[in-house]
Design a protein that fits this description.
By secondary structure, this protein is α/β, with parallel strands linked by helices. It contains 9 helices and 8 strands. The protein has one domain: Rossmann fold (3-Layer(aba) Sandwich), CATH 3.40.50. Strand 3, helix 3 and strand 4 form a beta-alpha-beta unit.
Amino acid sequence: MSWQLKAMRVLLRHGVRRSLGRQPDSIAARAWFERGAWLNARGRPYLDFAPDTFSGSGRELAALWSTHAAPGAPFMLYFHGGGYVMGNPRTHAALGGFLARKAAMPCCLPDYRLAPEQPFPAAFEDAVLVWQALMARGHAPGDIALGGDSAGGGLALALLGHLCTSGQPLPGCVFTFSPFTDMTLSGESIRTNAKSELLLPFERIEQLRNRVLAGADPADPRISPLFAQFRGAPPVLIQMARTEILRDDSRRMAEHLRAQGVDVTVQEWGNLPHVWQFFHGWLPESRKALNDAAAFIRQWIPPHPSGGS
């Protein structure tokens, strides 16, 4: 364990987690997350990203690219985390930019709709919109590495399940960091790891679920990909921490995928915060995890000379 991680564990457990748990509503939580992302990135890396807009189903969806990818060039489609209630491409630009450099391909960060103003299935519908728009632009599905963290990881897997069951073109690979895959909250680690969790306030998770679902079925595979079907899916990477409350969302997701014949790589780390990859500017453990993810992506989607980064 690095000395940086030792220091951050204290900060997260006694400062950040308590502060997140005190946010009165989603609007306050979003502002809190924005400030934290700015401090974490030591600036505003999103200013170097290129804006884009995806259109479909009578609406438009904004996005940011580390560098625009032309058809025929590989790239990453990354859905940010934030419990479906906070986060945006700006908060995750530093993470997307780091991955883009390490994988030697651009990263696209869609700005999907958030709850409670736009509850389920809004985020899922936006993910489908982005995928269809990319196909309409002439991008080859096999050139796309589909990924995300936390809720964004769950969203990436929900999109993958939808593509598998509807017979649509599939991405070249999928990578997720501590994915939120089960809105029924049936994983044992949600309770057994309540004390060891360094970042997420356990006592607020049911409230979060209610804001996101607004009465919808928590077992719907469009929000809980643990219950989706994945026959024929491409290789999947899952990274999670042993001590986080969503650990079993990852473990059971891996078992579910393997039972359907999917090639799954699981990297279970030790006493680390939820989505520790987010802190790559501070933690060597984060950089190692992201380097591993980039190597996984390159294994299945080799970069093209025209791809850029």
